[in-house]
Write a structure and sequence with these properties.
Layout (H helix, E strand, L loop, with lengths): L5 H8 L4 E5 L2 H5 L1 H12 L4 E5 L10 E3 L2 E3 L7 H12 L7 E5 L4 H4 L4 H17 L3 E5 L3 H5 L3 H11 L7 H22 L2 E3 L15 H15 L17 H9 L5 E4 L2 E4 L5 E2 L5 E4 L1
Parallel strand pairs: 1-2, 1-5, 2-11, 5-6, 6-7
Antiparallel strand pairs: 3-4, 4-8, 8-9, 10-11
Helix pairs in contact: 3-10, 3-11, 6-9
Length: about 280
């Protein structure tokens, strides 16, 4: 629970770094770790806005079991982000950074490479236009390429039974998408992060948990030096991984549907004692 007064908390919020994280299941699984990594990078509290969720799509509403989420592009992330930026104005030297990851779910849903790349381009452009220093992960081509027809049929049955693509077709689509993401990143001056095959487990889609730390460390390295936010240089509050994971893991997105019932959650969904705030969309 926040022990600072409201005015003090709001004043600090106008000075701290702003972190945007966009992804799907790996981002959801590693969000607590990203909170810790972001605070270590900033050497103080941050405002972190995340659009994540298992099976999340960049441009279409998605469903996993009885939970539905809006698309990343259609989520409340952008409205909230603009509201925060308008409220802050232009504090001198205030970092704005982002990580975009988990690109590829839409291929499994049957969307074309061109459609997916268009959605990713729109996502990167929105962040770039708002002055964010962005890092984007490449697709795990090495991991995907090791999946043979038998394992692919098993994984498709378990995770995406409606996927219309064969094993060879999904590998080719992933390679084409990866090349397009590289071109997009180069055109916008955005850093890319490779993902070695050994980072991934049996299903070729989900990072091994220890490797999530490596991913966030590489993202933070691409963001450069955040400096110490004014008024927070002496902050010593530590968010342990298990504590951050427990708080964030229990939180809900702003808008979601559970068993066809719409659920709304006020944001920020979590505020830690050091005034770090987490917004989920």
């Amino acid at each position: 629970m926040n022990t600072l007064g409201w005015n003090q908390s709001q004043a600090l919020a106008g000075q701290r770094p702003l972190v945007v994280a966009i992804g799907a299941s790996n981002l959801s699984r590693g969000l607590g770790r990203l909170v810790t990594a972001s605070r270590q990078w900033s050497r103080g509290p941050v405002d972190l806005l995340a659009a994540a969720g298992h099976g999340r799509s960049f441009g279409a509403n998605s469903r996993v079991w009885n939970r539905r989420l809006p698309s990343i592009l259609g989520s409340g992330l952008w409205r909230s982000l603009d509201r925060l930026l308008d409220a802050r104005g232009q504090p001198p030297g205030q970092p704005r950074v982002a990580i975009v990851t988990d690109i590829g779910n839409d291929l499994l849903y049957g969307f074309s490479v061109q459609q997916l790349v268009g959605w990713v381009e729109e996502t990167l452009s929105r962040l770039h236009e708002r002055g964010f220093q962005v890092a984007v992960t490449r697709l795990p081509i090495a991991s995907i390429g090791r999946v043979g027809p038998v394992r692919y049929r098993l994984l498709k049955t378990l995770f995406v039974p409606g996927c219309p693509l064969s094993c060879a077709e999904i590998i080719a689509a992933a390679e084409e998408t990866d090349g397009a993401v590289l071109q997009l990143a180069a055109s916008l001056g955005i850093d890319t992060i490779g993902q070695p095959g050994e980072w991934y487990g049996f299903d070729a889609m989900h990072l091994r948990r220890p490797c999530l730390d490596l991913l966030w460390q590489r993202a933070a390295a691409s963001w450069g030096d955040a400096g110490t936010p004014a008024g927070n240089a002496g902050s010593s509050t530590c968010l342990g991984r298990w504590w951050a994971w427990a708080r964030v893991g229990a939180a809900g997105a702003e808008v979601r549907s559970l068993s066809r019932v719409m659920r709304f959650t006020r944001q920020p969904v979590v505020e830690f004692q050091d005034t770090t705030r987490i917004f989920l969309y």
